[in-house]
Structures are given as C-alpha cells and as structure tokens.
User: Fold this.
Amino acid sequence: MRGPGYRYGWAGWKTMALAAVLGFLLAGCAVTTRPFDEAERTRLGSEAKKALFEGQEPIDHPITLAEATARALKYQAEYRQRQMEEAAAAAQLDVAQFDLLPKVVGNAGYTTRNNDAFGFGFTPQGTLATTPTAAVERSHSTASIGFTWNILDFGVSYFRARQLADQKLIAEEHRRKAVQMLMHDVRVAWWRAEAAERLLPEADRLLGEIEHAIERTRYIEARKLLPPVQVATLRRALLDLGQQIAFRRQDLAQAKIELAGLINAPVAGELRIASPATDRREVLDLTANLELLDDVALRSRPEMAEEGYKARISADEARKSLVALLPGLGLDFSRQYDSNRFLVNNSWTQAGLSVAFNLVKAFSVPALHRADEAQRRADDARRQAMAMAILTQTRVAAIRYTLVADEFLIWDEASRDDDLIVQYLASSEKVGIDTELELIRTRARAMASHINRDLAFANVQASIARLFNSVGYDAVPREDEAKAVADLASLVSARYGELERASFAARPAAKKPAIAVGKIAGADSRVAGLLGEGIARVLDSAEMKAADPAQADVTLDVSLTLEPAQDGRRTVALGVSASPRSATPAPVKREFKTTLSEPIDDEQWRILGEGAAYRVIGDLSPVRITRPSLRAARALAPAMHAAVGELMPEGETDPLQEGAPVRLRIDTTLGEPASGLASAGGGQP
Assistant:
C-alpha cells in the first residue's frame, strides 16, 4: 500500500530532474578561451604559405612589364580579396531576392497532456451543467500548409533588394579601382626592379672600390705623398659619393621584393627582369587633349560611379522609410488538419485578410522628407567634391609628367657627360696616385648619375601610370582575367600600347631658328667682317646659321661703340639685337661692355663677335623645359589666355601662344597642397 509520502516523493524527483537538466544547459552555455598552441600556429602558417602560391604558373624566365601586370591581376592577394568581396555582395543580393516571394509555411505538431481537458458547460437555461465534457483529446496531432503575403514587407524587401544590387555594383567599382592601382604600382615597381638588376652589381663593386680608395688616402696622408688638404678634400668627396650611392642603393635593393609582393611571387626567389634591348630611354610628349581627359575621367573613374550608386541607395532608403508608413495589408491562405476525434471536420481550408496601420508614425512624414532632402544635398556635395578632386588629379598628373620628364632628361645628359669624363681620365697618358683616385671619384659620380637617371625614368613611368589611373583606364575586360598568363600578358601589352598611342607621341627634335648676320654699325668693313666671322663661329657650332640670309628666321644686328685708348686698353660697348622675321615674339636686345688690349689684333675682334652671339644665343635656342605642359595648357578655355595676358608685364608675350619664348620662374607656392583636394577625399599616391 502506498504511503502518504508517495505523492510528494514523485514531485521531489521531478524537481531534481529539472534541476539537473538546467545544470547541463548552463554548463553548455559556459564558453572558455582556447588560444592556439605552437603546433596549431605552425599548421596555420604552413597552410597560409601553401595557399598563397598554389595553382600559380611558375616563373622560369625573365619577366616583362606586361607579364608582371598579368600575374598581379591573376594572383595578387589583395585583388583576390576584392573579388571575394564582390562575390559576397552578389550572394547577398541573391538571398534578398527571395524576400520578395510570399512565405509558404508548413507546420506539423503533436500535443499531449497528463489528463483530459474536461470542463463544465452551460445548459440552455443558463445554468452550470453538472456533467463535465471534453472537446479535445488528451493527445492529438496537427498539420498545416499555407502561404502568407504582406504588401508592406514586400515593399520594404523590394527597396532593400535594390540597395543590395547597388552595393554589388559598388563592389565591382572597388574591384576596378584595385585593378587600376595594380597597374600603377606594378609599373613603378617593375621599372625600379629593372634598374636594380642592371645597376646593383656595379654599385656594390664600386662601393668596395671607394672603401679601398679611402683607405689608400689615409696611407697617402700618413706618407705625405700628396698635400694634406688635397688628400682630405678627395677623401671627403669620396665619402659624399659613397653616401649618395649607398642611399640610392636602398631604393634599388628592395625593388624586386616589392615587385614580387605585387605579383604574388615567392619573395625568397630570384626574380629576373626582362630588360629592354637598349639602355636608351625614350621620353614621349604628352599630346592628349586635357579637356577630353577630364571628360573621360569623370565618366570612367570608379569613384564617380560609386558616388552615383550611393546616391541611389540613399534615395531607395528614403522610399523604403515612406513605404514602411503605409498600412500593412496581409493575406494568408492555408490548409489545416487536426486529428482530434471530437471535431466534426478534421481538415479544412482557411483564408484571412488583415490591415494594420501605425497612426503615430504617420506624423513623421514631414521629418522623413526633410531628412531625405538633407541626405540628397549631402550626396550632391560629396559627388561634386569628388568630381573636383578627379579633375585636379588629372591636371596634376599631366603636369607631373612634364616635370619628371624634364628631370630625367637632365640626369640623362649628366650621366652621358660623366661617362665621357670617365673615358677621358681612363685614357689619359698621365698616370699617378691623384689621377687614380680622381678616376674612382669620377666613376662614383657617374654611378650616382646613372642611378638617379634610372630612378628618374622610373618616376616618368610612374607619372604615366598615375595619368592612366587618374583618368580611370581599365587594363583588360573582366572576362579576360581568367586567361592564361601568356595570353593575358599579350592583352595587357596591347592595352598599354593603345593607351600610350592615344595620349603620347614621340618627342620631335626641337626646331632651331635659322639666324643670319645683319648690319654691324660703328665699325669699318674690316672690323665688321671679323666680328661677323666670330658670330658665324657660334652659329655654326649651334647649327643655327642660315644658309640663305633672305630666308633667315632671325636677323642679328650689332652696334659697336669704341672709346679712346687709355693705358694700352680700349673699352668697347656692344649692342646686340636679334629681330625675328615675324611680328612675334619681340626682338631680343642685349648690351655689354668689355676691354680690348692695344694693339687690337684680328682674333680679339673675332672673340668679341663670339661674345656678342653668346649674349643672345641662349634666348634663341629652343628650350624643351615645361614645353609639353604649355602645349597641353593651350587646350584650356580662351579665358585663361586673357587672364594670363592681364598678368604679363608690358612688352612680354603670352607663354601659352605657339612659338612664344618660355620664361622660367620659381614659384614658392608650388610645394603647398591644393586647397580643395584634401577635403574632397579623392587624393592619390
């Protein structure tokens, strides 16, 4: 027979069981930190290193610029990250499109209880029935299938899907931007690596010779083989040149590693560069119409398209907020089943219609309109700032090209002169300790010039890449990026050639004016003839002497004033006037005085004529410095010419006009940043 404590014992067991279940649940929710041990860290590092270069075509030959760009497009890790981000955005759009469909819901369930659901009802007379009844079984199963559709959810999901579609397009523009940056970075790194491959071995060898020469100067100084000041001066010059070479060597030493990182090649391997067949470097003229480049940049830059997509996202956000204020109309239709045997119909069809409207939110419509208008103005301002930044970058890139091109031409000329000096000293008949040390110093200076020249040419290539980047040129179509490296490199090479032909042209030889000797006043026929011979020497040397005086571009007139002799010397005043055949530019006039020794022989008169020619030859020689940028500037609006004309001093011509002399001046504001570029957020490296 069960005792009176049986009931309470069962309740206690249930309490204990419930407590145990809760204890297990709480223990499962407790999370502890699990840091990686050394073995796991090693495994992660090995897997990452293996995945970096897995599936890549090996590099077993010298690599060209086009192939380096192709490998960067196929294998560069950061670019692959952009591709994965674009794929993730596309996947989110695919998921969001399912939110537009009605919800089809299927349910199945089983219900049981520990006693029957009896209850007392009412009799027809309104009194409480004495016999309990039940309408639901103790255990029964249910099932249903149906769909529900809410017009409010549909509208919100529709605009959200449109926003995700624009987000996918933004991810595509980010990928395009990554491609354009790769084109820029690879071009710069490749040319620096090419210079490093040619110059580093010679630079290392020369640094060793400089160290050896410095030790020799200390030996010479101790033995007093040369004057101490001469030895110290020479040693100091060697130290300066060695420091310059070592400093520039830092830029070259890391160039190949930077290129390997860009093309996702093993940094520990020896990357070989396919150097051009000749050491001569050609600098092209920028011939593109800058106004056309501005239009192309505003049309093609990924940042402008991104701003447009962001504006569309903001507009859809405003529409989505307004749709959320509409009454929520809900429709549902389903087929139901219940196994309850007390039901007359165990299966039935059910339909419903509901409307919900938040009256309080209706008062927020004016605020939503104000927020939408403010956001629209912010989007417009951001887009205009980006457009201004893009235009600035395009013009700065064009000017930057002309500046670095001129810098390269200077270093190219300096390196050729240094090579000539080395040849002269190496072939000199005079042999001595000072000559040997001077030869080493000259070779070191020549090496520094070569490094500076090649780095300047790398800057020229960087400015070309920056111009292409500022305009928004793409390397190859997206579908071609999956091709093999060789095929992709051919497409990239063709694309580079196409872009360079569209914006640049071979730099023509500067046209030299034909100059003829005109009147020589203030001198007899003999002296005038001797002065003319001296002037002709200079014109012949400069290859500017007119074959036919009647067809000369410039006529050189000289006026001579000879003062009385005094103490065996005679002062001579010369006026030189170079008059062009055309009305512009204005004549170049120079005056100077000199002293001749009595008696004045014929050679003194000839040298005086040479001096007169040298006074104006510099103004008449063609000057290439900044000339490409001035040609490009002529594509600007005529209003700029008017503005320049107002600022020009009286007697000078507009430097933007064809054939006008180029006058250089230093502007202290050139080093200051553009006022609107930083705020626009569109600046480039």
Remarks:
- The chain has a mean pLDDT of 77.
